[in-house]
Amino acid sequence: MHKQTHALTKAQAANIIGRFYINPKLAHKIIQHKSNNPRLTEYKKIFDCIKVLTDSQTVMSINQAKKRYIYWQRFPHRMHYERDYAVANLMLTGKWITPQRYIKSVYHCRYCQTTCADVSICDFCARLLMRKM
Predict the structure, then answer these.
(1) What residues does each domain of the chain span?
(2) Per residue in 27-41, pLDDT tens?
(3) DSSP of the chain, one letter per residue?
(4) Residue 69 neighbours by CB distance under 10 Å
(5) pTM flag (> 0.85)
């Protein structure tokens, strides 16, 4: 048999994890056992898939995932933007939910009504106001 030389894609990783989580209780036991004994070479493919999906070098244990999941449940408006919540959800359910992006606020200048993403007054109006002072 030849060694696999190409890297896993996120779609392949999600497919492998989905099959692994058919029996969630067994999956949790395996992940917890591997987290407690990091030198084990068994189930390395599953951990590689989790690392590919989460873009991280480490895999959190089931206990850490439960703590993070419970913590983010207290902030329902923010939890879907947080990476920790997405990773914890993956570890507990086997389903990867990509974290959403924050939507930047758009401000309108109080004087000329131009739009800006950073401040509530544009540079031109700020210079005019500074001259008046």
Answers:
(1) 10-93, 103-133
(2) 888 888 888 887 777
(3) -PPP-SPPPHHHHHHHHHHHTTSHHHHHHHHHHHHH-TT--TTHHHHHHHHHHHT-S----HHHHHHHHHHHHT-TTTGGG-HHHHHHHHHHHS---PPPPPPPP-EE-TTT--EESS-SS-HHHHHHHHHH-
(4) 18
(5) no
